[in-house]
Write a structure and sequence with these properties.
The protein has 429 residues and is mainly α. It contains 19 helices and 5 strands. It has helices at 2-10, 12-33, 41-50, 54-63, 78-93, 95-101, 105-136, 153-180, 185-196, 198-208, 210-232, 268-277, 279-283, 289-298, 305-326, 329-338, 350-385, 388-392, 398-422; strands at residues 234-241, 244-246, 249-251, 255-261, 341-342. The strands form 2 sheets. It has a 3-stranded antiparallel sheet with strand order 4-1-5. Strands 2-3 form a two-stranded antiparallel sheet. Strand 2 and strand 3 form a beta hairpin. Helix 2 runs antiparallel to helix 8 and helix 8 (153-180) crosses helix 9.
């Protein structure tokens, strides 16, 4: 890692890309700290500091502490991430989107444009919901002061427009990092959001209990090492290409492989499941007294057995579902056949597709179990420790570790590939 950074700093264009990316990240964090017009900053900070718990910690973690503070970039990159996932799902269901996906660069540009429109729509919905909860006092329950200086309709509309505009600016920043920076712009921004809240959580844990702080750091190091090991694990399906004569040239005769990762679904199943399981918490105030009490007892507490069971089942189901729509064995097998390739011992065409589907299903099972265990580990630790202070400030959740490790590994791989392009040593000296 240090060698890669040193080589990158010695390369002028890569050093420029690094500085450009860091500048965009600094602007992004400033926008997350800048309050929207009409927000009572003192009241918000006082109430956010006293509020904690499952939903608050999750929102703070995924928004970098910006959403509950009603800042300009309060929504962060989550509307864009959600829109991208929705477009991936629709590309399998809607024939028009599936045809665009197969058209290459032109079709991908159209899908990207549709994703931007969906991002704006989701941003309007999310910003309207956040401002409505802030006006009614339900965004931070128990706060004695109003969060907005003026709870009128015009003031609320200004805040909504500001947040939606901030989301559009964040989307533009992510695309700038992808084009002119180190790449993976949106991933780097969500990585920044998650990492930004870590120092505050760790400081609170150290103040509450230095012993818990040391134990948590050691546990976090082992968790990160385990996640890196599993994220790098893959099954390499060998593919051979027959020799063919084109004119006077001989092509083919090479062997390669198809890398199939153990965790092919990535972080998406955990994010989907976390979002779904927080819907009952948001809908609880709208239910009757008995239904509300049952929901708060069984579906809002991470230490309840029913909550854990539903959590694991949804993660496994979403893992299989997402892998099935992102990796199509029939398309991969058809591409291998059209280029004159074959899997050794397997006939080209449908038998190859069936073999790839078999390998994918065998790998998805341990991948889904790995995601479930990683996401369930903090909940089990909470149930065992029963330390309210540690529970409220536990930063090493499954979602945060997967985001940090996944984005970090992808960024390092991109930097290494760019270094190889600029320092490629041929066989002629």
């Amino acid at each position: 890692m240090l060698t890669v950074l040193t080589r990158m700093l010695r390369t002028p264009d890569l050093r420029g890309k690094l500085l450009f990316t860091l500048g965009i990240i600094v602007l992004f964090r400033l926008g997350q700290l800048l309050p929207a017009p009409g927000v009572d900053v003192v009241a918000v900070r006082r109430c956010v500091g006293s509020a904690s718990g499952g939903l608050f910690d999750m929102v703070q973690m995924l928004s970098g502490g910006a959403m509950l503070q009603l800042s300009v970039f309060a929504l962060g990159v989550m509307p864009y991430i959600t829109a991208s996932i929705v477009m991936q799902l629709f590309a399998v269901v809607v024939p028009r989107l599936e045809a665009l996906r197969k058209e290459g660069q032109h079709g991908q540009a159209r899908i990207t444009q549709y994703t931007r429109y969906a991002t704006v729509g989701l941003a309007v919905l999310n910003a309207g919901t956040v401002v409505a909860l802030a006006r009614t006092g339900q965004l931070l329950p128990g706060c004695p002061q109003p969060l907005l200086r003026d709870d009128g309709l015009l003031s609320a509309l200004v805040i909504v427009v500001t947040m939606v505009a901030g989301t559009c600016v964040v989307m533009w920043m992510g695309e700038l990092i992808t084009e002119r920076g180190l790449g993976n712009g949106m991933s780097l921004l969500i990585f920044t959001q998650v990492v930004a809240v870590f120092p505050g959580y760790l400081a609170k844990i150290f103040v509450l209990s230095p012993v818990s702080f040391v134990v948590m750091i050691v546990t976090g190091v082992f968790l990160v090492a385990a996640v890196v090991f599993v994220e790098q694990a893959q099954r390499r399906v060998p593919v051979s290409y027959a020799k063919r004569l084109v004119g006077r040239r001989m092509y083919g005769g090479t062997s390669t492989y198809i890398p199939v990762k153990v965790n092919q679904a990535g972080i998406v199943p955990v994010i989907f499941t976390s979002s779904l399981l927080y819907l009952p918490s948001l809908a609880a105030p709208l239910l009757g007294p008995q239904a509300r009490a049952w929901v708060e007892l069984n579906l809002t507490s991470g230490t309840h057995p029913l909550y854990m069971t539903v959590y694991v089942l949804l993660i496994v189901a979403f893992a299989y579902f997402y892998v099935s729509i992102t990796f199509n064995p029939a398309e991969v097998a058809d591409g291998i056949r059209r280029h004159g390739g074959f899997v050794p011992g397997i006939r080209p065409g449908p038998p190859t597709a069936a073999y790839l589907a078999y390998v994918l299903s065998r790998l998805t099972a341990p991948g889904a179990a790995y995601l479930a265990v990683l996401a369930l580990l903090p909940l089990v630790a909470f149930a065992i420790l029963r330390d309210p202070g540690t529970q409220q400030n536990f930063p090493f959740g499954g979602t945060s570790i997967l985001i940090m490790v996944g984005v970090g590994l992808d960024t390092v791989k991109q930097i290494e590939s760019q270094l190889q392009q600029r320092n490629y040593a041929g066989f002629l000296r």
